[in-house]
User: Which sequence fits this backbone?
C-alpha cells in the first residue's frame, strides 16, 4: 500500500499520513508541497526519508523532490536535502511553500544570501502562505546576518 496517493486520484489533495506518522504529527490533508514541517517536529526522520525516497521512485515531480528535501533536512542531512531541493526548483514551479523550504534549507547551511533571497521571494509571492511557516520565514529573515 502506497503512503501517498497520486494528486490525480485525489483531486489534487495528497494524503501524507505515512510520512506524517513517521515524523510524529497527526495526519493531515495537503495540497502540493503543503506537507510537513518535519524539522520542528521530527520523531522518525530517517523513516520519513525512506518513505520520501520510495515515493520519489513513483512520483518524480517537483513535490516528490520537495518532500525528499524536507525529510532529509529533518534527518540532519541538510546538504543532501539541498541537492534534492535544487532538483525541485529546477522544474520551474514558483510556489511560496517550495521557496520557504528551499530558504530554510539554505539558512541551515549558513548560506544567508540565498536564504534571504528564497525566503523573501516566498513571502513576496504569498505573505500568508501558511500562518506558522510564514512567521518562521519572517523570523529566520530577521535572524540572518
Assistant:
Amino acid at each position: 500500500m502506497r503512503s501517498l496517493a497520486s494528486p490525480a486520484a485525489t483531486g489534487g489533495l495528497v494524503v501524507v499520513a505515512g510520512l506524517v506518522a513517521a515524523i510524529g504529527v497527526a495526519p493531515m490533508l495537503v495540497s502540493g508541497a503543503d506537507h510537513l514541517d518535519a524539522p520542528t517536529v521530527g520523531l522518525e526522520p530517517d523513516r520519513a526519508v525512506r518513505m520520501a525516497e520510495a515515493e520519489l521512485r513513483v512520483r518524480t515531480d517537483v513535490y516528490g523532490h520537495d518532500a525528499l528535501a524536507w525529510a532529509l533536512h529533518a534527518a540532519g542531512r541538510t546538504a543532501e536535502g539541498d541537492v534534492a531541493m535544487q532538483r525541485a526548483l529546477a522544474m520551474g514551479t514558483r510556489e511560496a511553500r517550495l521557496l520557504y523550504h528551499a530558504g530554510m534549507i539554505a539558512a541551515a547551511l549558513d548560506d544567508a544570501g540565498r536564504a534571504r533571497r528564497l525566503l523573501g521571494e516566498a513571502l513576496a509571492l504569498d505573505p500568508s502562505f501558511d500562518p506558522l511557516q510564514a512567521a518562521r520565514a519572517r523570523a529566520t529573515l530577521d535572524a540572518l546576518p
